[in-house]
């Protein structure tokens, strides 16, 4: 991220958003790069994952995790490189999966860090298909959905980090896979690149009717990512499949 070896940029929550976040809800602070103490490492962010859960962490409402305090660095998963180490388990140059948030540098006592394979040509995948989104897709579909060959699986937000993996796993399991995405470009990507059988554009008219056409036998497994009107269109077809 940063080009400097002495300055650290931190993006902090400046105010709690009302509706969609704006630039005014954040501010950039610049300070000196922290120095690790005994038992700590200095991490430099190489990749930062931007995920939907972050919007919830900006709000004060009750949730599964505490909100980010106004004035604190925004949270986020990262792939980081160890720039300095005073910790026996890590060496300079090691790549790790961390949770250091929206900043160039941070220090860690090693708790929660996961070492990554040093020769991996695509370490950013530890934040995607080989990380939290991929695990969410794998466990959610196979442990909870448990699709069987020949069943119809519908995936909301099909072009996203989680939905794209869900659909590909469902195809491997021999299912008919119908994606729901916003816009013609995303729907083409879902079919042409990800290999889904069909994709329904939720921005076009008559979502319930078009979804019913794509799922003539009903929906056996639905991977929910969005709620709202999409869930309302799916629910009657789930009931029809029971």
What descriptive keywords fit this protein?
five-stranded antiparallel β-sheet; Quinone Oxidoreductase, Chain A, domain 1; 242 residues; elongated; 11 strands; alpha/beta; 2 domains; four-stranded parallel β-sheet; 6 helices; Rossmann fold
Tally the beta strands. 11
Shape assignment = elongated
Can you give the helix content as a percent range? 25-40%
Poorly predicted segments: none
Strand composition percent: 15-25%
Judging by the overall fold, what is the CATH architecture of the largest domain? Alpha-Beta Complex
> How many discrete structural domains?
2
What's the tally of helices? 6
Relevant CATH superfamily of the largest domain: Medium-chain alcohol dehydrogenases, catalytic domain
* Biggest sheet character: 5 strands, antiparallel
> Kindly state the mean pLDDT as a whole number?
94
CATH-defined fold name of the largest domain: Quinone Oxidoreductase, Chain A, domain 1
Gyration radius, rounded:
21 Å
In N-to-C order, the SSE pattern is EEEHEEEEHEHEHEHEH
For the largest sheet, list the strands in their spatial order: 6-3-4-5-7
The helix-and-strand class reads alpha/beta
CATH class of the largest domain: Alpha Beta
What distance lies between the first and last C-alpha atoms, to the nearest angstrom? Answer: 50 Å
